[in-house]
Every structure is written in structure tokens, then in C-alpha cells.
Amino acid sequence: MVAEVEEEEEEAEAEENKINISVNIINNRLKEGEMVNNGFPDYAVPDRQSPEIIPSFSVLKVSDKFVPPKRPDKGGALAIRTVRLLVNHFPVYYDPNTIIGHYDIDIQRESTSRNGRLAKISKSDLCMIREKLFSDCPNDFSMAKTAYDGEKNVFSAIPLPVGTYKVEISDGDDRTTTYNVAIKHVSDLEVSKLEDYFCGKVLSVPRDILQGMDIVMKENPARQMISIAGHFHPWETGPRDDLGGGIAASRGFKNTLKLTSQGLVSCLDYSVLAIRKPLPVIEFLEQHIDGFNIGNFRSFRETVEIVLKGLKVSVTHRRTKQKFLIVGLSDRDTRDIDFDYQDPSGQIPPKRVFLVDYFSEKYGVNIQHLNIPCLDLGKNNKQNFVPMELCVLVEGQRYPKDDLGREAGRTLKSLSLAPPSDRKRIICDMIQASSGPFGGDVSQNFGIQVDANMTRVTGRVIDPPQLKLGSPNGGFSSLVMDPWKCQWNLVDKQVVEGRPIDQWAVLDFTAGDHKKRLYPKQFIPKLIRRCEKLGIHIKRDPHYETAFMHVFRNAHKLRECIDRVITRAREKGMGNLQILICVMSQRDNGYKTLKWICETEMGLVTQCCLSGSANEAKDQYLANLAMKINAKLGGSNVELLERLPRFESAGFVMLIGADVNHPAPHNKTCPSIAAVVATVNWPAATRYAARLRPQEHRKESISKFGEMCLELVDTYAHINGRRPESVLVFRDGVSESQSDMVLNEELLDLKAVFEVANYFPTVTVIVARKRHQTRLFLERGSGNVPPGTVVDTTIIHPFEFDFYLCSHQGIIGTSKPTHYHVVWDEHGFTSDQLQTLIYNLCFTFSRCTKPVSLVPPVYYADLVAYRGRMFQEALIEGLSPASASSSSSARLYSSSSSATDSFDERFYKLHRDLSNEMFFV
Fold first, then answer.
1. Residue 289 above 70 pLDDT?
2. Which positions ≥6 away from 758 have C-beta within 8 Å?
3. Where are the domains of the chain?
4. DSSP-assigned letter for residue 598
5. Are 894 and 882 a contacting pair, CB within 8 Å?
6. Does pLDDT of 528 surpass 70?
7. How confident is the model at residue 117 (pLDDT cuts 50, 70, 90)?
8. Which residues contact 158 (CB under 8 A, 6 or more apart)?
9. Is 57 exposed, middle or buried (0-12, 13-18, 19+ CB in 10 A)?
10. Which CATH number fits domain 498-635: 3.40.50.2300, 2.40.40.20, 3.40.50.300, 3.90.70.10?
């Protein structure tokens, strides 16, 4: 134990030293006068007139922390045209003299559980207790002038009495539970501090005030709608929202407060989620499980338990608002369950009773289904069996969209991807609805009002870049983009650099499926011809083998099958395979295992495809397949004709992308997966190397970020003969409140690791966000905004360097722009330079012939992080470590693994032959 404590202290000291090193580097350069002061205390920006890239720090230091730089100008000016836009930002007006009281509310049961621990109270019960207290004491507590977050915080427009109150809740069964409700004053929130922030008098965001106002605005919809993961949805769904299987599409909204250049705004967007219908449990099972027959329950027991476990139900035999969690099924059927009954009055001695008799005598209910199990609704390891027919699913329980069938998935997608005109109308209706954030009288009682009209802004459409492609004569050709469509095709064109393919094989898993069987004599020659047309030399005689889909689903057999293909290809004189093309009859979870085996154990690049598409062999499909194969093997499909803005005459530059993939919300143990990618070629900046690692569960900050980046820098140096002098980091997946984490944890770690390695490049860090609610609509017209649309006025941050860029052509639904926010800048970017750089990069994504919606370093990092999640799922679904074979160095796995095994970095470590290749595209 002492050793463990000492290790923790040493790690903490090392981490602190790394931070101090970085802070000292920055402070020393500040003292040495490397920067030009712009009038703010301790604030410095680079000399933007200098044509050279110099070490400079556009960062403001507040206390011991750094905050993002100010906007370097009044926004960009480059444009081929402008567009008038409407944005779903609704100005919020408030009285700056308002004081909002913040109170802590602590609710505990008066009696503890048997083990002496305080049992956790559900959020729905907490709200019910709060409502009971307020209804019992209306003179002290006003529902109309308070807002509750459902957990620990109450915000009030009037002073509240503090102290401890007793609240009794009846369970509808002649029993009451007493709760102690302690109310304590935390602080008085002065709304005037928002004005101080907008005016620049204070530099830190008044998040406590924003939190209070946000809860106030969510109080009305929280009372009238269902809250699902921060979204608000109606209690009922319509007939056309039915997705089948007891699942429905629920159409609601999500609302957030934002600080912008025009002041405080409410950003509201339309939201569609798949939810379970509030049906009686047995009816739900009949709809949800194919062929379910309650008369033959034993055949479906395992499926039923999987479907129901973790869901919430209410009961029909008692008058109660309580909600219960299903923890499992009873071992015995309902007719056979008995228990010791204790009379509440204590006048009758304990006796053994059958559950069926108890419900008949106590509630007058005759149980119909006697030969099926009961639901176990117990808490704290205490069983509580209730007949299934007396339970109803609670409304608003989210259903994973990935678990939907094909047709249901399409229906949900069509409802979610509303075209711009429909989405705009729905949003405007929701902001004015009586159940919306400004309906009712709560927000008005806090002096808050909203302008129900969308914000008007002018967007700029910037010019697309010229691209470089290959030509049949062996040279290069330039492509001038149509600024309206921003798409190109590969008819009579070639890739910039086609990687020759001499050793390849096709593994056909469709042998047992006559309807979906691959026709190799059609597919393989057509793929070869398409590759040749694109300038990718490919050998005309690949090794071909067949297998069955059941092999694809078995880790042991799959490993043996791939080994056999590799061995036989070598026997034919092919040497090491460059790529293995795997053809499947349908999508299958075995895909995860295939990728895990090939990319961590074998070092083999794979390309999967479906037999249906392969047999059709359409030209566009084959071209897309060829582009992916070429990129995976180190080729280059398309490049920018000119260098990136700001780096036209610079030395070597590296682009880094970083992202973290978290496990599903219901998963409480599996690690998060951190991925970092970086370019290894300059000035093309089209080839990326990747690193991925598991880290602490749901931790957003990337552990060992600097170490991962330094590995990629060393790879860059090995390929190019020198380290990059400039580094651009694009960080994905962080919220606005987590920018500080990127700046003061990840960046400091990066600087400290670089310092130890005697490496001092100039660094700029940009956060790219897609998880926001901001939408852009054409003021006139019904389509999406054109690609290249930039907005960097009005709806952006009051003074920090950020902008919205819609870089892609929206075909389906309403385009969502990406929000780019600069949190550190040592290169002195202007708005035009950075916006053009990012937009140009969006044309270089390796598997598209059009610009993508997210800058490629981040897009690739997201793909790599998702690949790491697939590795982890393959492990959990049936892989655990075993001894390696002496002949093949293969690790074969059994199904005995646990979630904790998946923290082992060995399972995620890429094979050395692939660690610097784009296997993930």
C-alpha cells in the first residue's frame, strides 16, 4: 500500500513538473520580448505584418491558466459571393439587475438501508419529492418562481427559507416513506456579470450564471415534456412515428444558451430520437420479439431478459408515481413464488404466503399468467417480484438507433433529416410553443424574455481550391472546381500517385449463399480495369479463395482461414500480401474481429465489400473501392495544387488530429479510446500515420497526448529527414466548457514532452465541433447553404477566434456547419488564412470526390478512434489472451474475457507494418 501511494505521488510530481516546464517556457519567452503587446495585461500576439513564421504566443494568461486568443481581426473578407442567412439563435433579453438565488437541496431517506448505506434516490423520485415539498409549503416555496435541475440545485427568483424539512411520500399501499430535505443557500448570482463579460471587464465565462439561467429556461419544458438525455420530447407520438417492434420516433428539441457577439442567445434545434412505447410489458414483448408466444415462455426467456433488463416500469396495482428498474427475472414461475409475509401492524405473526394469493388478498388482483416468471424490481440486492402483467414501460426510454431494423432505421433517418424549409418551420414553432423554454411563466418571473425571430447574418462563400490529379500521359493535371457544386469525377482522370499492387488476394465468404454469391470472374477483372484507368498498376492474377460466412463469425476459424490464405499466396510466389479483399454476403459483426486480427496481429491491410455491390460493379463503386485501396497502401488520390495558406514559403509542417471515442452510456467499465493521427508528407499533407490507446473510462482529456504526438513527429522525421517546424493540432469531440482542458492539460503536456525532446516547433491548436445545435438557413430559398459558406460575425464568440464553416454540399436533410475555435495560436493566423486553409483541406479527404464536412485530420482521428472501439468490442464479444503459437505468433482467444481485460494496451497496439499506413480509411 505504501508503495502504491509513493508511485501515485511520483506520478503527480512528474505531471506537475511537466506542466511547470511548459509554463516556464512560455513565461521565459514572454519576458524575452518575443511578442507584441496589444494592450491587454499579459496578452501578446505575433507580429502579423511579418511574412515569416516566428515563435509567438497569441494567448492570454489569467492567474496560472491560459485562455484562448482574441480574434485577430474583424473577420474575413475573402468571398466569391455573399449569402443572406437565418440562424436558429434567438436573442435573449434579461434585466441586468436581476439576482438569482442559488440553493443546494439535499434529499435523503429518514431511514437508511439494512447495510447502513444511504440508498440512491432516482431523479424522478427527487422531482416528485421536491414537488410535494413545494405543494405542502406554498407560502415558502413558489413553483412559479423556482427552477430545479432534478438533482442538487434549485434556482429562485425570490429568497427561500433554509433549513431541513420532512416530506412524506405515500406509495399507494398504505405505506409512507419519510425524506429529510435540507435546503442551503449557496450564492446570489448577479446577472450583471454577464454584461461585465460582454464588455471585457472580466475574462472568465460566468458559468454559474449561465447554468442558473439555463435551468430556468428548461423548467417549463421539464414540467410539460419528457426529458431524454438533455432533449425534451412530447409524452405521446403519432401513428406515422411508429417504427414497429414497440418502438416509436419521438420528435422534440434541444435548447442551449450561448454567449455570442450579439449577446446572450437561445439556440434551439429539432431532435428526433427512437424511444420505447409506454406499453404493458407483455404487449411490448409481443411486438418486439419475433414469434414471441407467452405460452412457450421458456423458449424466449434469455431473449426476454436481455430485452427488459435495465428498463424502467411503473405498476398498475398501486396508486403511485414511483418508477422501478428491472434487474432481472425470477428463477421460479409466478405460481411457485412464496415469501415470508410480515403484517405491517405487527398483530399477526409472520407467515409463508404465495405471491399469487398475496396479490389477490391485498389488491384484489387475480394473476392470469401463472407459468411465466415475475419481474425482479428489487433494490440494494433485495428482491421484489412483481407479476409481469402488472408492469408498464415508463415513457421516454431511449432505444439505440443502431439496434433498429433496416426499415425502422430508414424511417427514423427520414424524420431526423428534415429538409431546411421544414426544419426552420419546426424550430420556429417550437420556440413559441407553450411547452417550450419560454412558455409558461417561470422564465418571465426571472425577468427573461426571448425574441422569437431567428438571427439574420451575412455569410461569405469562399473560393474552392484548385486540385491536382494524375493524367494518362504520366504527368499531372489541374482541376478548377465549380464553386457551386464543388464536386469532381474521375472519368478520364487518374490519381496523383497510384501505389502498385503486385501481391493481393480475394477471400470470398459467400460460398454458402447461392442468392448472394460473388461472381469473381466479373468482379475481379472489372476492379482491375478500373484500377488501371485510375493509374493504379495491379497484378491481374490475384490469389482467390472461398469460405463461408459462419467462418467470418468465429474468431478461431477466421484466424485460421486468413493464415491459410497468406500461406497459399506465399506458396504461389507472392511473398507478403499487400492487401486482402474480403467479400461478404451481408454486414456482420465478424467485421470487427477481422479488422482486429489483421491490424494488430498480422499487419495485413484489408478491404471489405458486399457481394451485391461487387456483382453490380458500377463504375463509381469500383472507383471508390480503388481510391480506398490506394490510400490504404500509401498512394495519394488528390492533392492541392497550391500550398496551404500561411505556409506558402514555410518549411516543414505537420497536421495533427485528435479524438476520443467513449463507450455507450449504459457501459460503466470499458475504456475510452484516444486516437491521434498526423500527416507524414509535406507539402501535399495527404498521408497520415495513426496512434491509438485505451484510457480511463469516459475520460475526455487524452492521456499521454504529448507522448503520442512525439511518436508521430519521430515518424515524420524518419520519412522526411527532419522534424516539422510548424505543428497544427485539430482537436475533436470537446464541448465549449472543455476548451480549458485542451489548453491547460493537453497542450501543456505536448509542450512539456517536446521540451524534454529538445524540440520547439510553433504550435496552433484548433477545436473542431460538430456536436452543437447551430443551423444555417438561406433567408430566401429552400435548399442548403452552398459549400464554402463561412460565418464569422454576430453568432460567434464575443471576442475569441472562432467561426462556422459549412464546407460540404448538403444533399439530404439540413447541413450542419462545423464550429472551429482557435484555443492557441503561435502562427498569427488571420481569419481569411485559417478559414481558407481548413476549407482547402476538406477537399483532400482520400475517399471522396467532394469536400467533406469536417477537416480531414479530425475526420481521420474519428475513424481511428472508432476502429479502436471495434477492437475493444471484438475483445468483449469473445476474445481473451492466450498463449501465442510458436509457428505463427498468433494469439488465439476464448470467450472468458472481461471488460477490465480491454484496458490492456496490447489489444490496441497496431502492428508495426501498419502503424504508419492509412489502414483505417
1. yes
2. none
3. 1-81+636-861, 281-394, 498-635
4. I
5. yes
6. yes
7. low
8. 101, 142, 145
9. buried
10. 3.40.50.2300
CA distance readout (Å), 814 to 281, 407, 485, 548? 37, 22, 16, 41
Rounded CA separation 51/46 (Å): 11
Q: Name, in order, each residue with C-beta under 8 angstroms of 104's C-beta and a sequence gap of 6 or more.
A: 152, 153, 154, 182, 183, 184, 185, 186
Alpha carbons within 13 angstroms on the beta-carbon side of residue 419 total 5
Averaged pLDDT, 345-366: 87
pLDDT digits (tens, 9 = 90+) for 426-452: 999 999 999 999 998 999 999 999 999
Grid cell 508503495 in the structure block, residue: 3
Predicted TM-score (pTM) of the model is 0.89
3-state class of 298 per DSSP?
Answer: helix
- pLDDT higher than threshold 90 for residue 781: no
Is residue 804 within 8 Å of residue 795, measured between CB atoms? yes
Which fold does the domain 1-81+636-861 belong to in CATH? Nucleotidyltransferase; domain 5 (3.30.420)
Rg of the chain over Cα atoms, rounded to whole angstroms, equals 31
Q: How many CB atoms lie within 10 A of CB 27?
A: 13
**Cα–Cα distance, 234 to 224 (Å, whole number):** 8
- Nearest to residue 206, comparing CAs of 163, 150, 166, 264? 264
CA–CA separation, 901 and 904 (whole Å)? 6
Rounded average pLDDT over 414-426:
95
Helices and strands (DSSP H and E) totals, the chain: 21, 43
Of 268-272, 630-634, 662-666, minimum mean pLDDT range = 662-666
Residue 921: band (very low, low, confident or very high) from pLDDT cuts 50, 70, 90: very high
Does 57 have pLDDT greater than 60? no
Query: Under DSSP, is residue 468 helix (H, G, I), strand (E, B) or coil?
Result: strand
What separation in angstroms does the CA of 41 have from each of 30, 46, 54, 99?
12, 15, 22, 30
Report the DSSP beta bridge partners of residue 675: 659, 692
Torsion of CA 643, 646, 647, 650, to 10 degrees: 150
Can you spell out the DSSP letters for 688-741? Answer: EEEEEEEESTT--SPTTHHHHHHHHHHHHHHHHSS--SEEEEEEES--GGGHHH
- For residue 82, the surrounding DSSP H or E stretch is strand 81-87
Q: Are 261 and 796 in contact (CB under 8 A)?
A: yes
Average pLDDT value for residue range 5-18: 42
Among the listed residues 601, 599, 507, 577, the one whose alpha carbon sits nearest the alpha carbon of residue 893: 601
Long-range contacts of 164-173 (CB under 8 A, 24+ apart): 165/133, 165/137, 166/110, 167/129, 167/132, 167/133, 167/136, 168/132, 169/125, 169/128, 169/129, 169/132, 170/320, 171/318, 171/320, 171/322, 172/318, 172/319, 172/320, 173/318, 173/320
CA 480 to chain centre: 35
Q: Which has the closest alpha carbon to 787: 839, 835, 730, 831?
A: 839
Mean pLDDT of 186-210: 91
Peptide bond just before 683 cis, omega within 30 deg: yes
Region 542-567: what's the mean pLDDT? 93
The C-alpha cell at 315 is 405498476
Residue 123: pLDDT over 90? no
Instruction: Specify the CATH superfamily of domain 281-394.
Output: paz domain (2.170.260.10)
Q: What is the pLDDT of residues 669-683, one digit of tens each?
A: 899 999 999 999 999
**Cβ proximity of 513 and 519 under 8 Å:** no
pLDDT for res 668 = 82
CA trace torsion 723, 725, 728, 729 (10° rounding):
50
pLDDT tier, 481 (very low <50, low <70, confident <90, very high otherwise): confident
d(CA 736, CA 915): 32
Please give the pLDDT value at position 526. 97
Domains 1-81+636-861 and 281-394 share a fold: no
